[in-house]
Amino acid sequence: MAYYFEEPSRTFNEYLLVPGYSSKECRVENVSLKTPITKFKKGEEPDITMNIPLVSAIMQAVSDDKMAVALAKEGGISFIFGSQPIEKQAEMVRKVKAHKAGFVTSDSNLRPDQTLRDVLELKATKGHSTIAITDDSTAEGKILGLVTSRDYRVSRMDLDTKISEFMTPFEKLVYGKAGITLSEANDILWDNKLNALPIIDDNQRLTHFVFRKDYDSHKSNPNELLDSQKRYIVGAGVNTRDYEERIPALIEAGVDILCLDSSEGYSQWQGDTIAWVREKYGEDVKIGAGNVVDGEGFRYLAEAGADFVKIGIGGGSICITREQKGIGRGQATAVIEVAAARDEYFKETGIYVPICSDGGIVYDHHLTLALAMGADFIMLGRYFARFDESPTNKLNVNGNYVKEYWGEGSSRARNWQRYDLGGDPRMKFEEGVDSYVPYAGPLHDNVNLSLTKVKSTMCNCGALSIKELQEKAKLTLVSATSIVEGGAHDVILKDASSNVIK
What we know:
globular; TIM Barrel; 16 helices; CBS-domain; 18% strand; alpha/beta; four-stranded mixed sheet; 2 domains; 502 residues; eight-stranded parallel β-barrel; single chain
């Protein structure tokens, strides 16, 4: 006989937080959102801790290198999508790791024997006006000069003019030596009224640039998530098919953490993949797994050696798995049960395996609810797809600006590996849709607003950390009428704005 759960499967919107005692210390500026993303033993610290509890979804429409840099600046991690050739995904990882905090690897490089025409073409392609002139036109070559927009005038010069004739030669360059601090580089920039400072090693080879605008950006992002070499931390999605080739390539590129991307994590396929990682790399390579929706699934992946476990099946805005297959569970119920299983596992083994809530977020306050119910961090797709930094096109549809957003299970993505259960390597039916989401502007402004709401609610609960929120939170189920009462009602609105994540 089939097993029947006694309680209904519930969503975040069916719960509210009940306020707790707030001391004078409960102020937004005092709240810490630091959270672990990798497993750790009792009394020890995790190898990777995030400064905010947000990661971006492993999706073509969400997470590329640009999103990874933007989110790392805020203190979170982006998992670069894996439904692309191995070499392309690895290159995206390299681009992120090439960004030190304030130090940028040059992506605009030419040789002195090339021409003004090449300068203009490169500027049009890259959008950068500062071009490094090296002996081999690479970012690590011997620097021979620099070209900026001040070095040429198109109206008065032949397009075939050699770069060597108008570049600023090395002898006249102001530069910094490799190993210089960002603060020291900034002093040189300001003392010499420069916008860009090349950094070179003892062999006159270019290592980085420091741009005045990037220094300012670094100072305005105190939560930046950096590795020991001051590079941005980045994740990447992998699958259970080509992991023996993909994972080594990503590690060589410098990836900090991996995540198995699958609609169903409670499977031998994931167990075997994690076992391969542990046999080949031990605990040095960090890898999360999922997705699961109950305690059994969590325990299977925790015992297999996962660094974190991802929760959620069918709750994403573009996911139609529940509709197509009748598989899934309400996200709130899933998080509550898996959180209990995590805590039980910690008591038994002394190993804390963080859990990630993936899907079901509609309103900003759902973020706080997910954390209160036990999630250590939250994976978001639609939320990040709306921003400038997502890799999709910005379009004007019926007078409104939107961005494209499609699921990994859609015919557009054709990411069959995510839904793979063995057998024929083809998508037999769709489990995601192709859609638009309202354009929302830059990531920084939106994330800051959302997390201010989270912090404010935590203060209402008397909590100054995520762990304290999970210990002190009081949650109540709400009726359908209570949900209506919770919004504006019985008035004529002047402005239809709300806190919905549009």
